[in-house]
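Colleagues,

Please find the record for the two-part complex below.
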Amino acid sequence: MIAYIIRRLLLLIPVLLIVGMVVFTLMHLTPGDPASVMLGREATQEQKDALRERLGLDEPIPVQFINWFGSALRLDFGDSLFIGKPVTQALLDRAEPTGLLALYSLTFAIVIAIPAGVIAAVRANSLLDRLLMVVSISGVAIPSFFFGILLILLFAVVLGWLPSGGYVDIGENPIQHFKYMLLPTLTLGFSAAGLLARLVRSTMLDVLNEDYVRTAYSKGLEERHVVLAHAFRNALIPVLTIVGVTFAGMLGGAVVIETVFNIPGLGRLLVQSVTRRDIPVVQGAVMTVAAIEVLVMLLVDLLYVYVDPRIRYGAD
Amino acid sequence: MSQRDQRNEWGTIPMTEQLLGRRASRRSIVRAGAVGAAGFVGAGTISRTGAAAAISGTLRSPKPLGQTADEGIRGGRLRVATTGQPAGLDGHLVGQRTITLIGWNMFEALFTFDADYATVPMLAEGIDVSEDGLTNRITLRQGVPFHNGDEMQAADVIASFNRWAPVSSLGLAINAFLDEIVEVDPYTVEIKLTSPLVALPSLLARQQQGLSIHPRSIMEAAASEPMTDEQYIGTGPYQFVERQADRFTLLRRFEDYVGVENDPSGYAGRKPAYLDELEFIPVPEEAARVAGLQSGEYNYLEEIIPDQIAVLQDYPGVTIEILPPRSYGVVIMNTIAGPMSDQKIRQAVQAAIEVESSGQATHGEGYFELGPGIMLPQTVWNSDVSAELYNQNNPEKGRQLLEEAGYDGTPIRFLATQEDLGDYNAAVVAQQQMEAAGFTVTLEVTDEATLDENLEDDERWDVTTNAIVFRPDPVLIAPFASCSWDGGWCSEEKVAAVERLQTEPDFEARYAALEDLQRLWYEQAPMVKLVNNYGVAALTSNVQGLLGRMHFEIEPEFANAWLEEA
């Protein structure tokens, strides 16, 4: 198992190298000069040249890549051209809002979706099943920016109960923090819950038709025990995969939600940095997101072992 | 070396070119406050009308600017939703609208603009100009403290000037005339010029990328690098507290502020700083800004698009006010290379354009007005010369001109970006109108950074859209003063007209020069003027002391604003 984990972690190096090269190349092929964006085109050529020199943008591209990648290996992505602080610091500043939003949303999605999916499967084709599936399809079908704006209009504008957007650090004021995070959590969580509930229902239906479930029922076990102890555990693997992918996606930045609710997170930083041509931040952020994806998927793979004892890694 | 590069060689270009001799950025033009050059009040060279003419309509009309302020309520925090994160707050180096909005609450300039857009002293006490116009002696107010406790003196002004002049277009404009700047005594600075510069006080006034005054120690420490958070020290009524990128910029009242005692008037006069704190929050998403205003999360929006105005118009607790025009749209043609370098083809575009559709598409009914003047109507410079060539709506004439020019159907590359919806919609409308006159037009839509880069290369574009923002004096409107702005409009007649505008001391002579310039605009058709775009202020109704008292064209200041109980 340890060897497997080490192997997977070592895989990070080629993945990040490829991602880094692709992002670096794309950013340098994309038209748009960071110096012009920063200074405005009103700036003189001399001003722009001086800024390019100060930022190291006047070096040949291969030299820039070698310098950048050498530093990146030491987790030094350079300084943001726009924010004026190290990229690592800029990413760390955005990690808390994005990480907590992902955590809250995923928790909300799991708490809502798994019971809903299980109940819908157990009561398949009933009115309750149809109702739950209509709600879950809505979660998938309604664009999150639209749902978010509806929630803002209702809870912030009409009722005035919650703020319309922004972010307060949890350490600064926990109550305010949760007030600010409630609507984004509902929006992101509802969207994730829709997909998850449908998946849970579908896999549970498959499992509930298995022979061993019928056997369990015929042994006289209670339905609750059969469903939770026998069926649900076996339905967990695909659910776990989707939970992992969803969580990695959320950590990579829920761009739309962060934009609608004005949360200074990783996704918004990435999008704004592309617009600003803040090349070091884009490169650093994309590599961070790639690393998060790899690590979360590794975690999911490891969790399989605990969910399904038949799975063994590194036994070859 | 390309034509444009040659033009950018300062030593080889005419004086008018040197005044603002570079291409103004799309962003800076669209987002710019005024680059003011109204005549200095003390010099008495320009007569004026009120700057804030009310626009009739269903919305509340502004009161005349410059009323004596009521006694405001002290306390509270005003939250301003900005359109994005500014690139620092160093207004010497970077010209951005949001920096202008935030910065002038903290910093002050030697001069500023009053209610009539006349240039009046702020940190300066006055200016004496010698008979020959070459020696400008500026006396400073005494006992004005910086936020770090030091007193503002001549050495600080000179250090600020020396840092600012080489990096800002206004400073470079002065540098083209500058012999030397010297300290006469701790409260007197002398600027010696090589030739008279009528607009000097206005060039030194409060405006986008204007000369803000900072302590000498900070200017020397920052040098050509952007100022850091610790270095945002000025003399203004608010001082810098904290800034977190993409989250907020917080300013707090400077308790030791020493201002002037005149009644508030435009950007000039007393600044009581009723509010304890000003918080500027970047909210790039338009709908989020609007919802935030409705919920009371924000008190003032830096910008609102017309589509959203209807949402807010009758909303309780929100005030929407239509302001005098802050810009007008233009279709810009590349006069240097490609088909548009043919004047007849440009005139064909001018003939084909009908501007009302453009106004409807970009701003919506009630938020624009028609007018041929290349200077906005709230200035004394507005003129109807060549009005018959404005808004022609004559595709047949366009077709005929194209035929005479021998246009062979070469596709016209029309650059546009959806990052500025107003410009984009104007481009779409203009494209259709051009096609109706027989043009073949390809709309090339990119992001703004790409569009900016494409515009730098004359071989990569033919037409684009932009807006020219309010400025009180034509001399400092870059497309007029410069041959290097987008499209590269340049001709001997144009240069001569601008030189007269720049050097004639008499207003009537300058106005005649402006009318000549406007005639040339319509005759040579480097651009097609669209509609005047009204400014719109969106704020919560408990914000007082702002509407009717403050200019918005170069962004408002909040030193006279207060919050009433909601």
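Confidence is low (pLDDT under 50) at residues 1-64 of chain B.

Comments are welcome before we finalize the supplementary table.
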